[in-house]
Amino acid sequence: METIVLGFDGSPSSMVALDWVAERAAAGPRRVEVVMIGGTLLQDDFGRDAGLIEAERRLRDRAPDAEVDAHRFTGRMPDALLERARGADLLVIGSHRGRPLWSAVAAWMPLRVASRTRTALAVIPDDWPERWTTNAGGVVVGVDDDDSSLAAVDFAAAEAAAAGVRLTLVHTWAMPVPQMEGSVALLASPIETRATHRRVIRDAITRARAAHPDLLTEQIIEQTSPATALLRASRAANLLVLGTHHRTLFTGAVLGSTGQDVLSQAHVPVCVVPSARTDSV
């Protein structure tokens, strides 16, 4: 049974995230914990207010077979929320795309939560219901050229297979810059470089199909920035999946580069999946 932790603060953005969780929980057996972080040290850790009671009622109404609990905990963000999510299968928060630097959860950046989580994190934009139609849009996943995206590919493939939709794998590349000057500088062949990157995405597709033989897949490989390709590919998707190993979203991207662009501009839910290496960080 999948365990979902929902970071909730009663804001419109967190209500959208709650509805997204409810739809997911209604599709199969899930355990959902609604978590509100805040208050003082004098507050009962298990105290619940009207907002949490309403959130629990809404979840039970929409996903009657789900196990639902709602609690308020005292602590500092994002540590307290991340601690509650430890051991869960998925952490979910809402985001306000009109204020890309701020999260709906205690005014923290989604990117900051994403960079520290050891649990798969789904960030739900607050305008998602306006674009939510059917599951036909499929799942999009970014594929890196090292093993940092393997967990993301596995997660995305499982999501697509469970929903019976297409998985689109996106990989970007750039021509390497020569490190030597003069006549000894060797320029990489564009044909060879492109062939190398085609192997990367081909290996990812093979991995996804090995786990889900009936999975429909397509590939996109472009000489452009990761954010540009991912945002373009996900315009009609229902979920966009990124891989991370805490300090970067894709190899070579400083914290906030690709992740900030994607999380602030994506019109669809974005799931950030830590690589297996984060378990030992």
From TrEMBL:
Top-level taxon of the source organism: Bacteria
SUPFAM superfamilies xrefs: Adenine nucleotide alpha hydrolases-like (SSF52402)
InterPro entries: Rossmann-like_a/b/a_fold (IPR014729), Universal_stress_UspA (IPR006015), UspA (IPR006016)
A Pfam family that the UniProt record links to this protein: Usp
Domain UspA as annotated: residue spans: 2-97, 139-274
CDD domains named in the record: USP-like
Family membership: Belongs to the universal stress protein A family.
Protein name: Universal stress protein
Protein species of origin: Microbacterium lacus
